[in-house]
Amino acid sequence: MAFDLPALPYSRDALAPHISEDTLNFHHGKHHQAYVTNLNKLIEGTDLENKSLEEIIKVAASDSSKAGLFNNAAQVWNHTFYWHSMKPGGGGKPSGAIAEKINADFGSYEKFAEEFKAAGGGQFGSGWAWLVLKDGKLAIRKTPNAETPLTEDGATPLLTMDVWEHAYYLDYQNSRPNYMTAFIDNLVNWDFANQNLADAS
User: Fold this and answer.
1) What pTM value is reported for the model?
2) What is the largest CA-CA distance in the chain?
């Protein structure tokens, strides 16, 4: 069963001016599509062909000979999760259960935003910043390349920010900090985080 490129949950111009249509044409239409295409080639004719994406990631993560498979499968999952982590008119302080958890576990929204941006800014080279639920508490993770909290026992991803250069270079050139500020202030989909928190509870 081949995987398909998941549709964006909004039009390609919906995140402008913070993320341009040009960026989404390349990032979703080219980069994400390439991971899907490569994944399908790698599982074709194998015993993984009818497994879920999450199952493939977990099998490949524990086998160093399957590094190429892991990278493509995890990047398909990470990118799909990232598109849903944003929405037009998003960002700023959350409401609902996630707001209460952020205040309880980080002390304030401002402290969370500071730590989240520090994770994204502190990831050398390509990677991701994550908000996860672990042992009933919110925590921040940074992962290099295609790595994902899905492989960490007991960690449930709630939200992610892509800090690979192709996520922001057309719009922000080499200024990852400006991209991260725009993500936090204008793009975060707190409804998605709230739903993930509810599903994990």
Assistant:
1) 0.96
2) 51
- pLDDT tens digits for range 17-26: 999 999 999 9
Four-way CATH pick for 97-200: 3.40.50.970, 1.20.1250.20, 3.55.40.20, 3.40.50.300? 3.55.40.20
Average of per-residue pLDDT values in the chain: 96
Low-confidence ranges of the chain (pLDDT < 50): none
Residue 132 near residue 158 (C-beta atoms within 8 A): yes
Instruction: Check if the beta carbon of residue 192 is closer than 8 Å to that of residue 87.
Output: yes
Tell me the residue length of the chain. Answer: 201
What's the CA gap between 32 and 36, in Å, rounded?
Answer: 6
CA distances from 51 to 34, 46, 54, 58, 76 (A): 20, 10, 8, 11, 14
> CA–CA separation, 72 vs 56, rounded Å?
10
Cβ-proximal residues to 85 (8 Å cutoff; 6+ apart), any chain: 159, 160, 161, 188, 189, 192, 193
CATH superfamily of 21-84: Fe,Mn superoxide dismutase (SOD) domain (1.10.287.990)
